[in-house]
Amino acid sequence: MTIDQELSLRLAVALQAAREASGLILEYYQTDDIGLESKSDATPVTAADRGAEKLLRERLNAAFPEDGVLGEEFDDYPAKNGYRWILDPIDGTKSFVAGVPLFGTLMGLEHEGEAVLGVCRFPGLDEVMYAVKCQGAWWQKGAGRPKRARVSTVSELGEAIYCLTGMEGYQKTDRMDVFEAFRTQARLCRGWGDCYGHMLVATGRAEVITDPLMSPWDAAALVPILQEAGGVFLSWDGQPTAHGGSGFSCNAALKDQVLEIVRPKST
């Protein structure tokens, strides 16, 4: 089996697993029984987070038992064949808890360390964006036909829509200068954050989103989707990786302007 066939098979399983996880998540969504707890880092976790990740792991293990899995809620499972899934069952748990539909289920796949597949499904919106390396990025709403996802062609920051998840990360990393630069230079600044903001960029509805603190499960699905949509997902030091601890998405035309603002301060 060629690698393209391997990836197509994995995409089909991932899309179905994400759809099933959406059903589980929606059973808790906007109810009083979400099982809310705080993790050791003070971030929220719910019964839906744990239940959805368990379901995703079960589906992936049944189909690809030699694939590794790294997830937010459970222990790492090492790969035996070079493939590793990186999962975030609910990216944007705070939105989920608040009953706001701008949260998503993220499934990224690496092959020998390279990001090759991404799925981002929004249970509360019934939308999914997905991509496989060299096969394009796609956006499907409900049962409609998937259409190509493409970034915008805006080439000046002064004409761009800028998104952010929240202020805490900028304060923790002492990078409020980044927020202030985009707030004052972009045409519009909006708090459409977490994976939703990155998918706005991938579909041409916004131009830039910056996140000063990101875990691999926050970013792994975003890398191939943005690349295949004609844009970039990079760490703040300019690397196309989910493991840089930070990240931004933008269209290709704005990459250098964004990097000029977010690059780490010299010491």
Can you walk me through this structure?
The protein folds into two domains: 3-148, Fructose-1,6-Bisphosphatase, subunit A, domain 1 (Fructose-1,6-Bisphosphatase, Chain A, domain 1), CATH 3.30.540.10; 157-262, D-Maltodextrin-Binding Protein, domain 2 (3-Layer(aba) Sandwich), CATH 3.40.190. The mean pLDDT is 96. Helix 1 (3-28) packs antiparallel against helix 2. The protein has nine helices and 14 strands. Helix content is 34%, strand content 25%. The protein is an alpha+beta fold. The protein starts with a helix and ends in a 5-residue tail after the last helix. The strands form three sheets. Strands 3-4-5-6-7-8-9 form a seven-stranded mixed β-sheet, with helices on both faces. Strands 11-10-12-14-13 form a five-stranded mixed β-sheet, sandwiched between helices.
Strands ordered across the widest β-sheet: 3-4-5-6-7-8-9
The share of residues in extended strands comes to: 25-35%
Number of domains: 2
Query: In which range does the helix fraction lie?
Result: 25-40%
Main sheet: strands, sense, barrel: 7 strands, mixed
Poorly predicted regions are: none
Cα end-to-end separation: 50 Å
* Structural category: alpha+beta
CATH class of the largest domain: Alpha Beta
Radius of gyration: 17 Å
> Mean pLDDT score, rounded?
96
* CATH fold naming of the largest domain: Fructose-1,6-Bisphosphatase, Chain A, domain 1
Please count the helical segments. 9
